[in-house]
Design brief:
The protein is α+β, with helices and mostly antiparallel strands. Helices cover 35% and strands 14% of the residues. Strand 8 and strand 9 form a beta hairpin. Helix 4 packs antiparallel against helix 5. The structure holds FE2/S2 (inorganic) cluster (FES). The site of FE2/S2 (inorganic) cluster has 12 residues, from loops.
Length: 355
């Protein structure tokens, strides 16, 4: 039954008043796009017009609250009576702790019944009359708009922009050109990386030099579980491009038990369990510097990316998007560790697209 079917004198006073305010849009308002369109017709619920239906809803709400009370009592009784270590079989879950099950079930029912009762009460018995919040019009009055228009015209006239075309044209030129200063400054962002990250100083036959002692490394210098940082032979801290080159070529060398290495390619690219990975994190380029011997995990201190050095340096945690690139190494005729080529993929942040 809709409000249109109920005579106004049969409605509650509050709703009758409200009904009179609905849809009262005058002909003048229809021409005004800012006029209040009024509320849509109010639909009465069955409980609003039928006392027996309202009573039924009342009993339903009371029943739900009663269920909640019983469930709460059940919760307390379960807590007091069920032994902590008693298990029960629940299909299809299997054996679970009886006390936990009883507490969870009773508390869940108690809370659900309160919520369901409150929702049913609000939907069926509380007033559902829509209320409009009347506001003053936000448009300016015709007088104010006319004054602004007149002021603008007066200002334009006094500036003589229309008459003094030379000023107007040079001003437009100046305003157009000045933003170009910002464009020129973009050059200071530096050159694009291009292919520079695809090549490092590593090449076939280049020896691995300890970054601290500056001595070429032999396999016997590295014990199982140790972590050593290395750079290419020939690179000196006094070199003009030292920072650029070390930032790409820095190596992290670990010695693992060959049997601990899960990745076959990693094993083949190393020497008797000695494997070399780029030290530059593939997230945003911090130096990876922490190593946990037991798990073979290397950690980047910047954002906690973690790489498993026994499994191709794949990422096992953190924001890095790629494994650390591995350098293929071997031993030269004099027994020193050497590179067998450059990295096969770009080092450093993965956002440079490895394609
Ligand atoms: S730079 Fe290594 S985790 Fe962000």
């Amino acid at each position: 039954m809709s409000s249109h079917d109920i005579p106004e004198e049969n409605l509650p006073a509050e709703q009758a008043t409200h009904e009179r305010g609905r849809g009262a849009v005058s002909v003048a308002d229809e021409r005004n796009p800012f006029a209040d369109p009024g509320l849509p017709p109010h639909e009465h619920r069955i409980q609003d017009v039928d006392e027996r239906a309202a009573k039924r809803s009342e009993r339903t709400v009371a029943l739900l609250f009663t269920v909640s009370m019983l469930a709460t009592l059940g919760f307390i009784a379960s807590y007091v009576t069920i032994p902590v270590d008693k298990s029960t079989y629940i299909f299809p879950i299997g054996h679970i702790n009886a006390l936990n099950f009883a507490l969870g079930l009773t508390l869940g029912v108690a809370l659900f019944a309160i919520g369901a009762g409150a929702v049913h009460w609000a939907r069926t018995l509380m007033s559902d009359v829509e209320v409009a919040d009347e506001r003053h019009p936000i448009e300016a009055s015709p007088e104010v708009r006319a004054k602004v228009h007149a002021d603008f015209k007066q200002g334009a006239k006094e500036s003589a922009l229309g008459r003094r075309k030379l000023i107007r044209n040079t001003m437009l030129g100046a305003l157009t050109l000045v933003p170009l200063t910002g464009v020129v400054l973009l050059r200071d962002l530096g050159p694009l990386p291009g292919t520079s990250l695809r090549h490092t100083l590593w090449a076939k036959g280049k020896r691995l030099v300890n970054m601290n002692t500056h001595q070429p490394l032999r396999p016997e210098d590295l014990t199982v579980g140790s972590l050593t940082f290395a750079m290419p032979d020939g690179l000196k801290e006094t070199d003009e491009n030292f920072q650029t080159e070390i930032a790409k070529a820095a190596l992290m060398i670990v010695r693992l038990q060959p049997g601990d290495i899960k990745d076959k390619r990693e094993l083949d690219w190393g020497h008797e369990g000695i494997v070399a990975f780029s030290k530059i994190c593939t997230h945003v380029g911090c130096p990876v510097s922490l190593y946990e011997q037991q798990t073979h995990h290397a950690l980047c201190p910047c954002h906690q990316s973690t790489f498993d050095l026994s499994d191709g340096a794949r990422v096992i945690f953190g924001p890095a998007g790629h494994a650390l690139p591995q350098l293929r190494i071997g031993v030269d005729s004099e027994g020193y560790l050497q590179a067998l080529g450059d990295f096969e993929e770009p080092v450093g942040p993965a956002f440079w697209e490895r394609g």
